[in-house]
Amino acid sequence: MPDSRAPSATDIAPSQSPKSASLSATSMARALWPFVRPYKLVLVCAALALVFTAGITLSIGQGVRLLVDEGLTGDSTQALSHAVFIIMVLAVLMALGTYTRHYLVSWLGERVVADLRKAVFDHIVTLHPSYFETNRSGEIMSRLTTDTTLLQQIIGTSFSMALRSALMFVGALILLLFTNLKLSLMVLIGVPLVLLPITLYGRRVRKLSKASQDSIADVGSYAGEIIQHIKTVQSYTRERHEMQAFSGEVEVAFGVAKRRVRQRSLLIAVVILMMFGAVSGLILVGGNDMIAGRITSGDLAAFVFYAVMMGSAVATISEVYSELQRATGATERLIDLLNVKAEIPVSEVASSQTAGQDTDSKVDGAQGEAQLAFESVTFHYPSRPDKPALEELSLDVPAGKSLALVGPSGAGKSTMMDLLQRFYDPQSGRITLNGSDIRDLDTVVLRSQMAVVPQQPALFTADVWYNLRYGKPDASDEEVIAAAKAAHAHEFIEQLPDGYNSHLGEQGARLSGGQRQRLAIARAILKDPTILLLDEATSALDAESEHHVQRALETLMKDRTTIIIAHRLATILHADNIAVLENGRLVAQGRHQQLVESSPLYKRLAELQFREAQTQES
Ligand SMILES: Nc1ncnc2c1ncn2[C@@H]1O[C@H](COP(=O)(O)OP(=O)(O)OP(=O)(O)O)[C@@H](O)[C@H]1O
């Protein structure tokens, strides 16, 4: 049975350059081969079944000849039953062979595509965040779904159809030549004559079907957008307008579909006419030969059988050929995606985790005290090479102490957090953890020591348990509840419709900003990191929420090395050190009182904070 090792992105031949021009069918096969290779045995069995059924189908022609000559036109009932018996045996063998072929080939298509999807997804989650800034998520999703489905069709159906048709064509041709040379030549000339117009016409119909599919996709995305923005639509009372606009989209789709249906109906009519015309021609010539006694009626019947078989084999091959062209596009896009290099090296620990090895010891060994330092760090975002987001920045955060970052919007505060987590590496200078460059650490070892509480905490469409355990999946229920209590989240969680089993996320329970932050804080408390990266919510929380969040944060920050993008005065006042940033540079650092006296920028920012705090209190 199949080898269980599924290929990974690294199995792809490096010679496949991402910029390669449109792939040829052979290079497509070469690109996909690593995914098919583990299932060689299935492939061989499927090929055997295919050859077997093709052989049986071809021998049915001989059965037909026997049936006509001995059974139908002869006068022995025994010969008739004998001929029917042979046909039945052939039919049973064909059914068995077809079952095996169909099952194995479809299995192979599904299996290969499942592996391909996994390889693409596994690769995507290791990619650099900036990749997702330049590539739309919808496009990446469609590669995972639409492109892979197309390949499944090719591997699972079309390819075996083409192979079968090729075998049939050659087999039928040989049998024809043996039976009657004159009629065979007629077929050889007739098949292309009949197929050419059908193929050309078929291409037009296919183009229209693609247009039709596209316009249906437009209808879908139009409806999707309206549903997503339904509140805006209703509050601006645009329902009628949207109905009309949608109706317009639907009518366009109908118009395209109508043209396609008309062409397709015409194509069917043409096919019928041409096929019957060609067969009638054969019967006319062959029938004359039969009357003249040069061939038997069975020969003629077998002849027509093989001629039709050849015609449909050629038709199938031309159909598959155009599908293959669509599939090369899909393969190319998938291979390009698999070839995108992760700029930050993929973690060895993460790779061995996927391979099921024990990695806890490596990760745990890195825990302990955490002293952080930025040493003359200069960093440009890849999309902004001319403007540094951080410039010659040097800062120390002693183990267990807190550093508050303040500064106007765009000063570089979030960039510092990104660099600490190694979403990017600085172009010059270095960031150290306990004296060693974080570039020398495995990303999993580095990130496992950190917990991040972002401004807009990400909640997954799952229950509270799952969301809180995200950073520590093996935490017990008691540990989760203790973390929620420490984060002042337990009470409101209990009040949710299903308590800890309530579903959150997109369509889940609606949580306030403060509640979301407290869930994120609980998640961080549960992870129990040595380094804490906090981005305080900028939107004003109500006094009670603010109080809860502040107390939760105090619990969380205790004895941990903390870097916090501070928007609240209380946080700033309690920080061990405050760094004032402006345009990517460190302009001042110290405690609150020192800075009020020494830094005009800080003084201004602090005054704004005071004013806001006072307004909120009054
Ligand atoms: N992904 C990105 N690609 C290119 N430039 C970016 C990217 N993210 C941020 N920048 C730029 O880098 C600079 C620093 O941005 P950063 O987000 O670190 O500022 P910030 O101090 O966190 O601001 P805010 O308080 O508004 O969040 C800004 O000029 C910003 O436009």
Q: Could you describe the 3D structure shown?
A:
β1 (372-380) and β2 (388-397) form a beta hairpin. It is elongated and about 120 Å long. It has a six-stranded mixed beta sheet with strand order 6-7-8-3-9-10, sandwiched between helices. It has a four-stranded antiparallel beta sheet with strand order 2-1-4-5, covered by helices on one side. Mean pLDDT is 81; it is low at 1-21 and 356-366. The protein has 618 residues and is of the alpha/beta class. The termini are far apart. α2 packs parallel to α5 (137-179), α2 runs antiparallel to α9 (297-339) and α15 crosses α17. The chain has helices at 25-36, 40-72, 77-124, 129-134, 137-179, 181-228, 230-235, 239-291, 297-339, 348-354, 360-364, 413-420, 443-447, 464-468, 477-486, 490-495, 513-527, 543-557, 569-574, 592-598, 600-617; strands at residues 372-380, 388-397, 402-406, 428-433, 436-437, 450-453, 531-535, 561-565, 577-582, 585-590. It has four domains: 21-180 and 326-343, ABC transporter type 1, transmembrane domain (ABC transporter transmembrane region fold); 181-294; 359-449 and 533-555 and 565-618, 3-Layer(aba) Sandwich (Rossmann fold), CATH 3.40.50; 458-528, P-loop containing nucleotide triphosphate hydrolases (Rossmann fold, 3-Layer(aba) Sandwich). Adenosine-5'-triphosphate binds at residues 133, 381, 383-384, 389, 407, 409-415. This is ABC transporter ATP-binding protein. GO terms for molecular function: ABC-type oligopeptide transporter activity; ATP binding; ATP hydrolysis activity. The chain crosses the membrane at residues 41-60, 80-99, 161-179, 185-202, 266-288, 300-321. It is a multi-pass membrane protein. Keywords: ATP-binding, Membrane, Nucleotide-binding, Transmembrane, Transmembrane helix.
